Fold this protein.
Amino acid sequence: MQALRLVKVAGKSIIKNKMRTLLTMLGIIIGVGAVIVMVAIGEGAQFEIEQQIQNLGTNMVVVTPGAAQTSGASQGASSFSRLTPEDAKKIKNESIYSANVSPVFSSFRAQIVGGEGNWRATILGVTPEYQVIRNWDTTSGRFFDAREERTGAKVVVLGKTIVDQLYGDRDPVGERVIVNRVPMQVIGVLESKGQTADGNDQDDFIVLPYTTARNRILGRWSFMRQILINTYTPEDIPLAQEEVRAILREAHGLASWEADDFEVRNQEQLSEAAQGTTEVMTALLAAIASISLLVGGIGIMNIMLVSVTERTREIGIRMAIGARGSDVLTQFLIESIVMSILGGALGIALGVGGSTLLGSTMGWATAVNTETVVIAIAFSGAVGIFFGFYPARKAAALNPIDALRFE
Amino acid sequence: MSEIKEVIRVLDIRKTYEMGKTKVHALQGVDFSVREGEMVAIMGASGSGKSTLMNIIGGLDYPTSGSYFLDDIEINKLSKNQLADIRNQKIGFVFQGFNLLARTSALENTELPLLYDRSKRVKKHSEAARHSLERVGLGDRVDHFPNELSGGQQQRVAIARALVTNPSLVLADEPTGNLDSKTTVEVMSLFQELNAEGVTILLVTHEDEVARYAKRIVELRDGKIIRDIQQTPDIAAQDLKELLATRANDQGIEELEAAEAD
């Protein structure tokens, strides 16, 4: 009825003043677009990190060597390893909450010769359980088994990058490679896990039984970087951490007053810092973008105020022929709301387009979520009402006699 | 013969403006009435109070004291919103400066009062507006914008707009103030035509040229009525014919002179 007609009037007025409308909306368009792009970048970064943590494996607990204390002077984390394969075995045997346990030996980059050339890659010496913990499938062949681990079989599983470098498109399963002058047989290829956010290649590894790695390649004095454990359920993680800590304290013969010479952490703790950083970043980006939205809103108010002055005569005419103050108020309010919602919609298009463009050209992870879009629309509508009300009320309060006389 | 209905009855209207400490008595007790079908010119020099009176009669302003009845409704007792509705339904305004909305077609301008009509008497807006434009002789210009129309045509759109709600009263404030003499006669001829069709018209003017087409003249001075006379109006249509004839004649002479000069 009446409101619908006023929407029509407002619509006509908006269409008749295309340039003014566009300039008014520009602030909102850029504001909403900026909010969406910024939040998309932040969310994308967060998603990326979550993905990486998921890549590490599920329900994972990590034991790393702690700071060895020499006469009370801390040598820093990992300064001297106090972890042994026996520690891993003891956890495997005694822990109730741990499902799988694998020691992780690793080397600096070792020379690998095979296929069409040679390559230097990190060597990981683990148990078959490592595959389960890290949830890492093979795309070809198989992972080594418990017997091969026990006997120290000369078998290797290659990461995707190494296959690409040495064999191209060829399936290397069954081929022979020479790792630090030791000939080995390729029994499997691991699926690709891609790069980490900081550009580390997660596929530049070869994996072999820790027994083989220790005895044939790394030497007796190699040390363990980690023990990886996973639990049956996420709820077990803190229980497992406590349990593993107790087992290791006993294994290392630590007195009650001595500090742990190892660290037991879970995935969440590993990622917390990174996660926190991106959350702050997202909030910061959103805050900056919100300011532009606010500025856009003030822009609308500015134009509407100018518009009220500019259209004083029009308001006078409308009142003289029977418009009530409330009709004029509603008309101006609808105009500003329509403009800001229209601006919001264009801003969303801009934001989604911008995010997609950034995602595809810059390779940035971006994630537009519906929540942001809904909030942006609601916010731009609110901006329209809030910043449109004052000019609209000013228009409605005009005296028709003065308004008609206005030049 | 039954009694002719009174459209306007003004009883001892006074209006006082306070300008700082001095009081300006714009109207000092005005009494008069207008019956249906009349065409009245309210005259007076500037400062005589005729604009103030027009604002009150037009429902744009309240008197300081006195009563004003329009169609037997006591207008000075109404709220602002009721006043807006009265302006919408009972009064048709025609202004000196045309006051059409720019970038809005003649048809849309004419429809405008119907937009605010809460009584919803008129269902088909564009039809009513079209009819109204035909009445003022602009049936072929409905889609034109004000800037595509001459001054006289713009004023006729404004008259069409005033007529679209079938008001009890058309109130014209210096309707020919912005028009040349030929167009003035044209517009006055239209007013006389409408009056002949039964439309009650109140003209506010300071020009005798305009007032002579009215059936009655009410003259104000210093906020009081000093003269209220009936007269036999000149026929604008007749004047227009003569005017056109003289013009054509003058032009003919000019052409002759130009030819002789060559």
